[in-house]
Amino acid sequence: MKKIFLVVLAISIVSCKQSEKKETEVIKPVVKLHQLIGGSIFVKKLEVFSQDTTYTGQTKQFTDAYYVISHPKGNLMWDAGLPESLIVPELYHEPSGVFAIQRSDSLVNQLKTIGFKIEDFKYFAMSHSHFDHTGHANLMKDATLLIQENEYNSIAGDTLKNKDPAVSELKNIQKLNGDYDVFGDGTVVIKYMPGHTVGHQVLYVEIGHEKPILLTGDLYHFEENRTSKGVPSFNYDVKQTLESMDKFETFAKEKNAEVIIQHSPSDFEKLQKILNK
Question: I want to staple 140 with a disulfide (CB 3.0 to 4.6 A). Which of 15, 124, 170, 240 is the partner?
Fold first, then answer.
């Protein structure tokens, strides 16, 4: 009788532990990702995207995407495209002679196509503070800006005499120092990847498909940039960029993530196909 009792007790303990395990398993929320076009960038002097003369005489067409991430705890906008002043009939050839740029439509109109309004956003974040990523940033003034502290200090810090007007309306600031889990459940994570700028960051998003999505910001600008680890001439720090590339690739492999190069027209199409499945 004693043996039977012990067997029954052991089975009960195992069953309880299995039940506890099931109860503690985290069911991740449904996260949706939308991709929008923040402009077109025609690079007339591709050599600026190298530390040497590799691309001298070459040109390349870039896209300029930005993204909407919908989470049960709130919505996040990632990047802000080109300024809306560039919604013009013809390409604008900026003074440096490097870029010909144009934006097709306003933030308000583009958000309407996916059923959103500017007021719907809890968070706003940019991969970095270059002009092609801060375009409509000031329109996001009611959202909380998630930005690396060193990046913020470089464009809007208290000690700066000339602050970046592209972010002058943003007053709700959450300064980050490294990686940041936006909603606290691992589905949307900002990863600190400095080098392109002092506080450059990329975005990891789990959207319920076979693979999570990893948005590069400007760590890479086009496919060859990634395979050759090419560093643009205008990057803040070459060594940091290369270290971030190594860190990025390790993380992408660890997560089996689908890497999306944000300025790549082919990656734009690739992501659209994934999102339409």
Answer: 124
